[in-house]
Amino acid sequence: MKTPIQSIRKVLVANRGEIALRIMKTAREMGITTVAVYSEADSDSPFARFADEAVCIGPPPSSESYLLGDRIIEVALELGVDAIHPGYGFLSENPEFSKNVRNAGMIFIGPSERAMMTMGSKLAAKENVKPFDVPLVPGTDFPVHTVEQALEVAPTIGFPLLIKASAGGGGKGMRIVHSLEELPSHFERAVSEAINSFGDGAVFLERFVTSPRHIEIQVLADMYGTVVHLFDRECSIQRRHQKVIEEAPSSVLNAALRAKMGAAAIEVARSCDYVGAGTVEFLLDAEKRFYFLEMNTRLQVEHPVTECITGIDLVYEQIRIAEGHPLSFSQEDLEIRGHAIEVRVYAENAAAGFLPDTGVLSRYVPPTGPGIRVDDGVEEGQEVSIYYDPMLSKLVVHGPTREAAIERCIQAIDDYEITGVATTLQFGRFAINHPAFRSGDFDTQFVDTHFTPEQLHREVRCSDSELAALTVGLIHQQRPKALKPSSQTAPSKWKERRFD
Question: Domain for residue 492, yes or no?
Answer without folding.
Answer: no
